[in-house]
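Entry for S-adenosylmethionine complex. Fields follow.
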Amino acid sequence: MKQDRWTAVDEYFQEQLAPHDDVLDATQQACAQAGLPDIAVAPNQGKLLQLLARMIDARTILEIGTLGGYSTIWLARALPDQGRLITLEADATHADVAKSNIERAGLSDRVDVRVGRALDILPTLRDEGPFDLAFIDADKVNNPHYVRWALELGRPGSVIVVDNVVRGGAVIDTGNDDPSVRGTRETVELLRAEPRLDATALQTVGGKGYDGIIIARVVS
Ligand SMILES: C[S@@+](CC[C@H](N)C(=O)[O-])C[C@H]1O[C@@H](n2cnc3c(N)ncnc32)[C@H](O)[C@@H]1O
Ligand SMILES: [Mg+2]
């Protein structure tokens, strides 16, 4: 059972439980037309993020890694009218595409796209938290820093989601010197050692291949 089957099953659940609308379709089309890489979350994963945000009644969301705003839109739709999502993107072209997609989605009032390297912007967000949910999906080598910042900018009960932590299984290859794999393993070590965070990891298969996510909760 391989990729074709994973994709077909993903499509089944997506059609049944996470159906697309015109805004999400237009977002994906605009991203493709602008030449953005096809590395956004899958629809089922976007729906998972939205459900997590709703389950904790998130009012403030931090996203690291915007791309064209696809995951941003899923997350921002979980927010109440007064809610706020800040999303960080290093690439100005990606950010422009995202802003236009977020505008079309009618979410500009609650979504703020900040352009720059996340590690430069995060220290400026102390007065804008605490963030109820953080979605980390940028340069994986910096994931340990991003988790530390999400903890710093969170509160007890905040949820932190880290995307793409399985990397086709490479996460268990101790000798792998891919910076993304190293960053992921360091993140796992940090989560194991940090008593203020409680976490687990889920392997995923689907239209986007074989990967996975970490879900953590700020304990204190
Ligand atoms: C996987 S994509 C994000 C996908 C998006 N979350 C989604 O699912 O729709 C990663 C994004 O992070 C951005 N990025 C990479 N390094 C970054 C950094 N240091 N600071 C902020 N953004 C960064 C990339 O330009 C890219 O747009
Ligand atoms: Mg991702």
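NOTE: Strands lie at 60-64, 84-89, 111-115, 133-136, 159-163, 197-206, 209-218.
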